Amino acid sequence: MGHWWDTDPQKVAINNYAQQSIFAKLLISLALFVAECCGGLFCKRLLIRRSSVRVTQDPPLIQGLGLRQALLHWAFERQCKIRNPPLVSTTHPMNPQADQLWRAPRWALAVLLAVLGMLGPFSIDTYLPAFTGIAQALQASPVQMQQTLSAYLFGFAFMNLFHGALSDSFGRRPVILWGIAMFTVASAGCAMSQSIGQLVFFRALQGFSTGAGIVVSRAVIRDMFPPSQAQKVMSQVTIYFGVAPAVAPIVGGWLYVHAGWHSIFWFLTGVGVLLWVANARLLPETLHADHRQSFHIRHLMQGYWQLGSSPRFLLLALASGVPFNGMFLYVLAAPAFLGTHLALAPTQFFWFFVLTISGIMAGAWLSGRLAGRIAPQRQIRMGFVVMLAVSVLNLLANLLLVPHVSWALIPIAVFAFGWALMVPVVTLLVLDLHPERRGMASSLQACIGSAANGLVAGVIVPLVMHSTRLLAATSLAMMAVGLVAWVLLRRRWPDTGQHITAH
């Protein structure tokens, strides 16, 4: 029996996809055009206005200066080529009562936060083995099934703009609990969907909610721990986080075979209920009352403008978020990559996830071991070297050899190792760039990464999934974007991540 994704000629499928997704592409193009225009205006103003600016030691945004002063400082700093102090310091505020908020072992908190973070990828990987059954049951085309992924990821990206800011104003606990509650309702809606349109809608609602766990958990870690300890906890979270994508396709495949595709979403509903109860009973409020920010839409937009116009923030966000898609690309293309190119049955998909997640867990473990021992920039360089080397080898192998399961999965696992080695460090650099806005910074970072994920899922994957060579080349390109961002950051601010953080 043939699979749903190869029932039509590939070129016809691609053309159909291009026609049906033209509106989404236009929106993306418009957003990029506006961003480019704003960036051009931004640079033009910086070049014109650069006089009478006093250079201070601390970043202007941290000092509370306005946007205009911050832009002028940036322009003057560029012209004079002044070296700023490192982004990581030992003076960033954390909850002064942090040692009283969690009495259990540190690894237990890491497990709780990891479960929060893994809810997002778990809700993706669980239903991937059931793509065939869902498509047949709802009479959906391959393009429509791909839209269930895109809707989820774009919903995730959009709401990430608000999760962190809301947690900075109202506390970490309420945002997490409301997010889990919405996810539970959306999962039940997916289970009861009678059409592909309903499924897309509830998948988007799932995406709106699952980002709360990922975004807020990062802020919780930094509320509780100083930099080097936070890196260790972040690494532990990444290790436990890796269990979800490895287990999810196994669980999803078993449920689909024995109870139908609806059971997958009923299972996610049950997971949401249990997770809500666990966090309601165990998760402390880590945001100190003195550190709360007032919530106003105007203030929120101004804050995002300040963060989004910060070259350091954007480069760090690109360095951490875009390389992930070099690996995630294969996850999104799993039905075609594993089912068509490698001739694996849906019940065999878990081998791909086991190897990939093993790489993530190994990289995260090593990252935690290196915390406080080597400079952050050195650790980041090690991660990029691994990803660059394996990406080049993967492309050469696909150009010279016929893809086979005996070797095709290994480069992806090694790539995942390199990404997990460097991403906890980059994430902490992002959070510590503006410590008074950690939630907002985490939100915007996650939004940039999720928008890239959605773009890859909705536009890039359907165009390249028919060829393993194109998949390998695209993976290399994704990694290159992050590498270029890091190189530009290092050239502009050489001291970034240069010093080992104190415990």
What does this structure look like?
The chain is mainly α. It has two domains: 20-82; 83-492, Growth Hormone, Chain: A (Up-down Bundle), CATH 1.20.1250. The chain has 23 helices and no strands. It has helices at residues 10-20, 22-48, 60-63, 67-80, 98-101, 106-125, 131-138, 142-170, 172-191, 196-224, 227-241, 243-259, 262-282, 297-308, 311-321, 324-332, 334-341, 350-370, 376-400, 405-408, 410-433, 438-464, 468-492. α6 packs antiparallel against α13 (262-282) and α18 crosses α21. The longest helix has 29 residues, at 142-170. The protein starts with 9 loop residues before the first helix and ends in an 11-residue tail after the last helix. 52% of the residues are buried. Residues 1-92 have low confidence and may be disordered.
N to C succession of SSEs:
HHHHHHHHHHHHHHHHHHHHHHH
Mean pLDDT: 76
CATH architecture classification name of the largest domain: Up-down Bundle
Shape: globular
Low-pLDDT stretches are 1-92
Look at the structure and give the CATH class of the largest domain. Answer: Mainly Alpha
State the helix count.
Answer: 23
Can you tell me the CATH superfamily of the largest domain? MFS general substrate transporter like domains
What name is given to the CATH topology of the largest domain?
Growth Hormone, Chain: A
